[in-house]
Design goal:
The chain is an alpha+beta fold and 99 residues long. It contains three helices and three strands, in the order ββαβαα. α1 crosses α2 (72-85).
Length: 99
Amino acid sequence: MHGQYFTVYYKKSNNKPYNRLGFTVSTKLGKAVVRNRVRRLLYESFRLYEENLKTGYYIVISAKHKIVGADFHSVDHEVFRALKKADLFDNEKIDSITD
């Protein structure tokens, strides 16, 4: 699933009661400070929605260069849109987010 700031790859695992999350941030994006900021932005955005997701998935988020100058709210909106498009939200729990 492609987004403006990143690409999301996901795969159903062996029905474990949790998700596994990984990030790829290329050295082409910048030095360590920049790459770590990108990881923190992505992780915090994901963390806000984690309890509302279906479980048992491997999820990898690969950052694109455009994310370097992005603010938290635009990244957060993009994470929500990507997870919703990938149908990773638990339908029973998504109502609490959209209200």
